[in-house]
């Protein structure tokens, strides 16, 4: 591998962009979880969460040979072979479904009762939940990286660069979501969808995430128009 090889740089740029896209789900989830904490602790939780995501991805990349065996079927049900990756995806999808429903219920019930949502979640409890979902998102991301790049040095560099971008973007995204409850509800709805996609993927029914991200971007654009319209009406 030569540093002047253009294929190396193309691979690095492509993989970095892909890691950023695949990390959007993770940023949204970390942002929502951090929002359960006191405002003074939210930035620290986001930083620790993304740092743990980086460590998880690098450790998985360093375990590349074990990772390739993780896709081998462990057992079969109705003719479908379930691998270790499939089981992690299903467990992570179920966790996302449970957590998203729990957050939506807490938000809606808080609004209906006229009381603000309580931010009493313990700091390390939030970090523990971030670690669990980091493992799920990291597994999917790393398996994708292994399939696209041939050199582990390129994979690690791409992950580090992507995490740097995500770390810079986490605070603005977190502040925006906290200022606009409708955006938070939209994000939670898409996390429900991502959870279903993870379960389907684990059961052998692959769903192209491009459709999910397009739907997410379209819904976000519509909601931004709604927010802008409400601001104009408030000024009028």
Walk me through the structure.
By secondary structure, this protein is mostly helical. Helix content is 81%, strand content 4%. The chain has one domain (6-235). It has helices spanning 6-22, 24-34, 39-62, 64-69, 84-112, 123-148, 152-179, 181-202, 209-235, and strands at 73-77, 80-83. α1 (6-22) packs parallel to α7 (152-179), α2 runs antiparallel to α3 and α5 runs antiparallel to α8. Strands 1-2 form a two-stranded antiparallel sheet.
Short summary:
Pfam families: TerC. This protein has 236 residues and is mainly alpha-helical. The chain has nine helices and two strands.
Distance between the termini: 62 Å
Structural domain tally: 1
Shape: globular
Average pLDDT level: 75
Strand content: under 5%
Query: Major β-sheet, in short?
Result: 2 strands, antiparallel
Order of helices and strands: HHHHEEHHHHH
Query: Could you say which structural class the secondary elements and strand pairing correspond to?
Result: mainly alpha
Compute the CA-based radius of gyration: 19 Å
Stretches with pLDDT under 50, minimum 5 residues:
none
Strand order of the largest sheet: 1-2
Count of DSSP H/I helices: 9
Number of strands: 2
Helix content: over 70%
InterPro entries: Integral_membrane_TerC
Keywords: Membrane, Transmembrane, Transmembrane helix
Protein name: Integral membrane protein TerC
Transmembrane segments: 12-35, 47-68, 74-98, 123-146, 152-170, 182-199, 211-227
């Amino acid at each position: 591998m030569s540093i002047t090889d253009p294929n190396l740089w193309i691979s690095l740029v492509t993989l970095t962009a892909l890691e950023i896209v695949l990390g959007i789900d993770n940023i949204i989830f970390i942002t929502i979880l951090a929002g359960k904490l006191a405002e003074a602790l939210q930035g620290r939780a986001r930083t620790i969460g993304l740092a743990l995501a980086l460590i998880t991805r690098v450790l998985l990349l360093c375990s590349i040979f074990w990772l390739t065996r993780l896709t081998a079927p462990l057992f079969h049900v109705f003719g479908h072979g379930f691998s270790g990756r499939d089981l992690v995806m299903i467990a992570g999808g179920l966790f996302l479904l449970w957590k998203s429903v729990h957050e939506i219920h807490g938000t809606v019930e808080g609004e209906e009762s006229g009381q603000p949502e309580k931010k009493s979640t313990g700091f390390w409890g939030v970090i523990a939940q971030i670690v669990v979902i980091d493992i799920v998102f990291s597994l999917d991301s790393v398996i994708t990286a292994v399939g696209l790049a041939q050199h582990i040095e390129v994979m690690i560099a791409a992950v580090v660069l992507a995490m740097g971008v995500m770390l810079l973007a986490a605070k603005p995204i977190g502040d925006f979501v906290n200022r606009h409850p409708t955006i938070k509800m939209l994000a939670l709805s898409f996390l429900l969808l991502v959870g279903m996609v993870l379960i389907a993927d684990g059961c052998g029914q692959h769903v192209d995430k491009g459709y999910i991200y397009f739907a997410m971007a379209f819904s976000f654009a519509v909601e931004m128009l709604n927010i802008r319209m409400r601001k104009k009406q408030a000024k009028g």
